[in-house]
Amino acid sequence: MPRNSSQAPLTFSPAVRSALDHAEPIVALESTIITHGMSWPQNLETALGVEAEVRGSGACPATIAVMDGRIRIGLTEAELTSLARTRGAMKLSRADMAVCLAQGRTGATTVAATMIAANLAGIGVFATGGIGGVHRGAEASFDISADLRELAQTPVTVVSAGAKAILDLPKTLEVLETLGVPVIACGQDDFPAFWSRSSGLPAPLRIDNPAEIAAAQAMRSRLGLSGGQLVANPIPREHEIPREVIDPVIAEAQAEAEARGIAAKAVTPFLLERIFELTKGRSLAANIALVRNNARLASGIARELASLRKDGE
Ligand code: PSU
Ligand code: MN
User: Fold this and answer.
1) Active site amino acids
2) Ligand 1 atom closest to Cα of 272?
């Protein structure tokens, strides 16, 4: 267990508490995708569906959020429903967590904040859709997601479908390399592009099975290397939106965001919502499919991490 975890205001759901006590596999899940990434009621359906996917793959889901001054590790169905209906939840990254907790507000955790909470709780793997990264035009806006630095410092394996394709993917890969984050494609050589299976860029590393991904994370800590791993799992073929279809849509949404002066934390939610409208919902269907697919892979990694821990005892 990481240092200081005993002082952190963590509240475990009964299911997660029991899984931790029995050293059973656990997969952390984020909540910004629920409050800022999708709208009601698809956000709740997706959150429940992803949890079911994790259970069906032999692990315990732990959706993470901040409520009433506590970091909640695992939410009941009633709590998930209430979060999915909430308007005005804070979007929490590393910078915002402590203030949200100190003020007793409700907040949804991004990839960065979910990694921090998962690590405090002793959970080693986390599934999401796509991480944040270097935004297009970052050379002017300096908009680079805190998710990247978090991957460099917090020892959690993050399973995603790559970085969201609204980003500048070559620059995102460059920053990850500079920060020393292993970017591991699963099942193919190319780095995936969220809605599409390939970004056209090679991934720096490739591992095709959960056991080796878990072993690599354990090896990092034996080497004293800080940080986690980014596992890039391509969207299932039947759900992908080909690059030539989605690229012009992204460009149009991007141009609108610029024209309207959308900035900072609002950029990603605005682009996802506009792309949803412009694709008449196809982007959302793809997003849901890829998150569920990531939840399955993350569960496999969680099972391997649990058996590594048992072997180490
Ligand atoms: N994956 C999705 N949808 C999302 C996100 C991830 O399929 O909405 C969220 C994650 O919480 C991620 C955040 O950390 O988008 C990135 O926000 P930003 O670009 O502002 O750092
Ligand atoms: Mn940003």
Assistant:
1) 30, 164
2) 8
